[in-house]
Amino acid sequence: MQRTLAILVVGLLAVMIRAPAPAAAGPEHSIADGLVLTPPMGWYPWNQFGQDPQNEKLIKEIADAVVRSGMRDAGYQFVGPDEGICFERDTNGLLTTVLSRYPSGLRGLGDYLHRQGLKYALYTDAGTRTCSKAMPGTKDHEYEDMRAFANWRADYIKIDWCNTKGMDIVKAYTLLHEAQLAAGRPIVHSLCSWGDGEPWKWAASIGHLWRTTSDICEPGHANWGYATKYAWQNEKLYASAGPGHWNDPDMMIVGMAGLSDARNRTFFSLWCHMAAPLMAGNDVRSMTPATVAVLTNLEAIAVNQDPLGIQGHIVRETNGVSFWAGKRLYDGSQAVVVYNRNQTPAPARLTWADLGVPDATALYVRNLWTHQTTGPITKELPLELAADESVMLRLSKKNKFPLPPIVSADTYLLTFKAGGRQPQILKDGLTVKTVGTDELNLWHVRADLPAWLSVKVSKQTKTGKPQTFLNTINTAGLKKGSYHAQVRADNREPVTGRPMSALYYDVDLELPADVAGR
Prior knowledge:
Layout: H1 5-14, H2 30-33, E1 41-43, H3 46-49, H4 56-68, E2 78-79, E3 87-89, E4 95-97, H5 105-115, E5 119-125, H6 142-151, E6 156-160, H7 169-183, E7 188-192, E8 209-211, H8 224-235, E9 246-248, H9 261-273, E10 278-280, H10 289-295, H11 298-304, E11 313-318, E12 321-328, E13 334-340, E14 346-351, H12 352-355, E15 363-367, E16 372-377, E17 380-385, E18 389-396, E19 406-409, E20 413-417, E21 425-435, E22 444-445, E23 453-459, E24 467-474, E25 481-490, E26 503-511
Parallel strand pairs: 1-2, 1-10, 2-5, 5-6, 6-7, 7-8, 8-9, 20-26
Antiparallel strand pairs: 3-4, 11-12, 12-13, 13-18, 14-17, 15-16, 15-18, 19-21, 21-24, 22-25, 23-24, 25-26
């Protein structure tokens, strides 16, 4: 959600000269925490539902639908309430759950999502109140609030910029970053100032993504004019994006009422090409098969989740047809979107000059929506585009179009409960799956585990892609109480050798009594 002033920011951005923005200053936040080294994928409720309908029942139903539809296994991870009146501040100044809407508590909701193999997304504001003023903001409570989000086991927080009169935007978001570090839980920070303060110039050192535009629609009402306007604003900032720091032109409107299947495909193509966060905003409980096919198109998602993290952009516009290129992929191929904005059919020619390769280069052409390959061809590709239609392509010297790793897990929470005073060995595992062409090496678990926990990673079959994380707990010598560990594992994409997003999960242990030693 946003304040009215953000509309003025949009107007200013719209007249910016067409030139790459300066690279984001400072070392990237993601270097340390390894989070979202490819654009985050997930679901937030605001575009479809707004504020009032949000509650625990809705979020759980959405989570179930994300898993059931195949979205989770296609890479959609982060799910949770947006500005949904989920917390308030008690007399001690601490955040507490609004139990009338979230009866399991916000920690309970997070546990439910984690057990579903999803990550937990929450919302707050850097000012005194949230945008609707229905919830408290973090101002003057930064450290307490970030501890609360960590205790609720949040993995992702959208931080709005409402009710911030007199505040310095860089100092405010920096303080929240420092408070999150002090809280001790790695959390994706999505900064939402709608372009105010030009966060693409400085926010990579304290956050992971930042909004570059105003809100893309009013709740429940997809707005195609805004969608194209904001895509054109966002693409100009391509030089500021990269692994772990992303330009965010707002959540998606794919599957919302009023959009044709063609516009759903065009929207998804543009967001994938721009390496934009893919946060779905539709009601995923009641999607048409066509909408599911768009949101789970792995060939398009592979462009978005490419480990190089390059944001594509417009290289040419001719007679109402825009040519989006500048997106080299990890295997040496290139992605292209050609979009006819006219209300009549239009011929178009994609030239090899648009790609920056010699005319004599022979290229195979893969259509990422029809999943058909043609070629090899040289010099140019003639196209016939229907009115208000686009094509998403991948071009390569080889007749191969591999997919990079897209990772999912069956759970991100393991819970153990011991019984009695005698030492016990407790075991449980989780499975990490990878959609992608190449098999990954074994995930490497960080060595900073507590003494009571050990983790062994193995492949389920000799050449299989799923990997099992076997967690073993030894209760000997432990005192009565609750124990928690967050496990981090790292891996590298096998073709480029680049780091992949770190994998985190939680382990809880409950001991009802002191346990004897070994």
